[in-house]
UniProtKB/TrEMBL annotation:
Name of the protein: Flagellar assembly factor FliW
Compartments where located: Cytoplasm
Domain of life: Bacteria
InterPro entries recorded: Flagellar_assembly_factor_FliW, Flagellar_assmbl_FliW_dom_sf
The organism of origin for this protein: Nocardioides pocheonensis
GO CC annotation terms, alphabetical: cytoplasm
PANTHER family: FLAGELLAR ASSEMBLY FACTOR FLIW
UniProt entry keywords in alphabetical sequence: Bacterial flagellum biogenesis, Cell projection, Chaperone, Cilium, Cytoplasm, Flagellum, Translation regulation
Gene this chain is encoded by: fliW
Biological processes, Gene Ontology terms: bacterial-type flagellum assembly; regulation of translation
């Protein structure tokens, strides 16, 4: 399955990631040909990187709803301009790797603005196994 997450040279986080208050500029870089595994790489500190992926390959029914405040912050005019990325906690193998479904990163590809959004859904896990 081809997902095709675009390489984005620079995105601005409208709200910094928790624990990284001074890091707001990141590049989204594909790490494989299918666009399944990507990296959010800080442009301010190249050693700061987060593994991310679109939800479709492992969580095809995942469809987070974001509030009007997120739509406004990211200046979203069309859902077609939005990509959702899950932050991964890489294990030693795919079997031990988890994804944070509670707080996806939402990127507006038109404005290059992004934010990690904490969803108001207590059923979503912080560490969902990629492989059941």
């Amino acid at each position: 399955m081809i997902v095709a997450v675009p390489d984005i040279p620079s995105i601005e986080l409208v709200h910094p990631l928790p624990g990284f208050p001074d890091m707001r500029r990141f590049a989204l870089v594909q790490l494989d040909d299918e666009g399944v595994l990507c990296q959010l790489r800080s442009l301010e500190d190249p050693s700061l990187r987060f593994l991310v992926m679109p939800p479709v390959p492992f969580f095809p029914d995942y469809a987070p709803e974001v509030g009007d405040d997120v739509v406004e912050d990211l200046q979203i005019d069309s859902a077609e301009d939005v990509i959702v990325l899950l932050v991964l906690n890489a294990g030693d193998t795919l079997d031990t790797t988890t994804a944070n479904l509670m707080a996806p990163v939402v990127v507006n590809t038109a404005t290059l603005r992004a934010s990690q959004v904490i969803l108001d859904d207590p059923t979503l896990p912080l560490a969902a196994p990629l492989v059941a």
